[in-house]
């Protein structure tokens, strides 16, 4: 069965000000449309049906002809952890033990169709009221709150370790498949000083830096940093790293095979500032990019 529609998409940008906006947490998970006929059916953003991957949602009951939009997340201590969700999102018919150990939650934030009634032309504020009126009562389904103070929502989401904030124009309709400026996403970004322990070649000379954090137990691996390396920065890095080459890795642990393939190892003496979106439970940086070489480290 094909997906009932394509989800509405957000644009990147700063959080807007003024009174015509609502603000929600941005959830780090898998976008999911849920449709209901005789039973619930789930579709990914791509249109692929993913119902069999999430049996904990199989008993969700809503009026026929309803379509919900939301994000499937896997919470750990109340915070979405994408690295845990990765073990669920590609597993069809997961074993009961896996579902019990890593249960998902469906964060529902819109209702473009309700009991066969097309709500797409209604403003966000009305759709939101209709969604909240459903009073969804299911252990794996939540309707997260919406707020009118963007600055406070931003601060709270950062303190809670969430991915960022979504701003939605109160008067906006639901535009299936459209990337609209009526929805704006703004992600948190963090920075960390890391030490270069090696680099891998790529399309240019340096494809990615292999970086880590010095600890009493050695250099702890943080991941590959390929973004943000301009041609000028690449030349500067090569001049710094070439005299520091060594035959073996300085990292405390063996790096994954994909990361160490073709690596040039160096003495861990060059410090760089890395911007990133999230630190995983294993200490790896997600969405890292180079900010600058730290010259006075």
From TrEMBL:
<feature type="domain" description="ATP-dependent DNA ligase family profile">
    <location>
        <begin position="97"/>
        <end position="227"/>
    </location>
</feature>
<dbReference type="InterPro" id="IPR050191">
    <property type="entry name" value="ATP-dep_DNA_ligase"/>
</dbReference>
<comment type="similarity">
    <text>Belongs to the ATP-dependent DNA ligase family.</text>
</comment>
<dbReference type="GO" id="GO:0006281">
    <property type="term" value="P:DNA repair"/>
</dbReference>
<dbReference type="GO" id="GO:0006310">
    <property type="term" value="P:DNA recombination"/>
</dbReference>
<dbReference type="InterPro" id="IPR012309">
    <property type="entry name" value="DNA_ligase_ATP-dep_C"/>
</dbReference>
<protein>
    <recommendedName>
        <fullName>DNA ligase (ATP)</fullName>
        <ecNumber>6.5.1.1</ecNumber>
    </recommendedName>
</protein>
<dbReference type="InterPro" id="IPR012310">
    <property type="entry name" value="DNA_ligase_ATP-dep_cent"/>
</dbReference>
<dbReference type="InterPro" id="IPR012340">
    <property type="entry name" value="NA-bd_OB-fold"/>
</dbReference>
<dbReference type="GO" id="GO:0003910">
    <property type="term" value="F:DNA ligase (ATP) activity"/>
</dbReference>
<keyword id="KW-0436">Ligase</keyword>
<dbReference type="Pfam" id="PF04679">
    <property type="entry name" value="DNA_ligase_A_C"/>
</dbReference>
<dbReference type="Pfam" id="PF01068">
    <property type="entry name" value="DNA_ligase_A_M"/>
</dbReference>
<dbReference type="GO" id="GO:0005524">
    <property type="term" value="F:ATP binding"/>
</dbReference>
